[in-house]
Amino acid sequence: MKKISLFILSVFAVGVTLAQAVSDFDFVPTTTDNNMSVVFPAGTLNDFVGGSLMAFKADGAPVSAASPVAEDGSGGIAAIGTDAMCGCDYLSGGDQLVFAILLDGEIIVITDVDPPLTYAANTFEMISGSLDFTIDGAPVVSGCADSDYLEYDGANLDDGSCATLIVEGCMGASACNLNADANVDDGSCTYAEEGYDCNGVCLNDCDADGICDFEEVAGCTDPTAFNYNSAATGAGCAGGDILCFPVIMGCLNPAADNFVPATGDVQVDINTADNDLCEYSGINPWGPGGGSEEAPTYITSNNMSVLFPVENLGVWEGVDMVEGDIIFAVYETARLENELVGYSAVSGVQCSGAVAWTGAQVGMPVFGSDNNQDNGFQEFETLVWLVERANGVVYNANLTYATAGFDGTYQDGEFVIVSSVSIGAPFYDGCMDPYNANFNPLATSDDGSCAVSYSIGCMDADKVNFAGAGANPTHDNAENFGDAF
């Protein structure tokens, strides 16, 4: 409750200002021969029972003793007038009267007294009209007037309804700094990080390794193993140990005779000098398993016919082959792919038709697969032609066709005529470095064509392990660049 020692009261109806100390309510006027009795009927002062009612001149000078407001809301005062014997300055005829009530240290000014009162000696007045009450010029509002309490409602006259002192603090039931005594949330609540308690300890850490279960990354943590995962934290509680598989030496080129495919518990290291662990005998033009010109092993129940009409000058344009060369068609048996880097290349081929070049007109069948088995060309698979020369070197061959509308693909039962044959680069030459984007899995001889290495890693330039702009070149911060396969 605020305590007032000095007040300024605006009295709007009479246009005057009272400025008196609260102690003026202790004023006791001198008895004179003149006074005016003013009565406030029951019910007019109900909100101010127990207060002290007093009259003032327009300049704020007290002109009555204080009298209590009764339980029924009534009150009355005797306004003292001046006489010739008192030597005082009280009310004179026609002076305007102003009324105020002191209640619990608050000054309530009664404004808009209707009808307005002016002093007349030895008269009696009953207040019969409407009254307005103000505190510091504002209309009186009764209620809890102390803002330190929850019940505070903006009132300026306390009616005793303040009960609960405000205690500010965090009220969040799950907050780390919950204040059980708080009744006003001050926005100070702090909460544990998801998965942790307020002390930063994992809520669920079944293997007690300090890493929360939801942050565990199952994987091999042995950097010497081929399946090492730099992000792994171990087995966690995923069920069972994480096996770390050792790296063994061997050949991982699908084109080699001693190719050893990687399995769940074996990883072959091909990063050896000149890839010298791999052994190559090349494609047998007469078929797998030791086929020969007299007994080829690629024969199936489906085939198409290809004619090389060398003696027909109206069709034949030229040939780079010499007698003894073998021309043969190969189909795809395997493909090496990696979607992450957009890589896809043939990694295995097999012969499905061949003929020895004689220099004269020759023909040959090209065999298709049986019932979609992988023992020949699939329907509309592109025909790939190779030439093996007497020195055993296999070359790429480029053929053009005289048959109208033929698109160079295998078509069961088709008969096509070749119009030219040209010899290209050695078939087994290419980039042998699997770290490179142009890695040729069929290459057995490196032709120096390796260009730019893959760099696979973080692509966010704001992070410390940013692996460089774009997939290439290899960047020092890349964490898992290398053999993309």
If you had to describe this structure to a student in words, what would you say it looks like?
This protein has 485 residues and is an all-beta fold. The protein contains no helices and 27 strands. The chain is rod-shaped.
What's this, in brief?
The chain is mainly β. It is 0% helix and 28% strand.
Counting helices, strands and paired strands, the structural category is: mainly beta
Number of separate helices = 0
Given as residue ranges, the uncertain stretches (5+ residues, pLDDT < 50) are 1-17, 270-274, 470-474
Shape: rod-shaped
What would you call the quaternary organization?
Answer: single chain
Give the mean pLDDT: 82
**Helical residue percent band:** under 10%
Q: Let me know the number of strands.
A: 27
Helix-strand pattern: EEEEEEEEEEEEEEEEEEEEEEEEEEE
Major sheet, described briefly? 8 strands, mixed
**Radius of gyration, in angstroms, nearest whole number:** 54 Å
Tell me the β content.
Answer: 25-35%
Tell me the distance between the termini. 82 Å
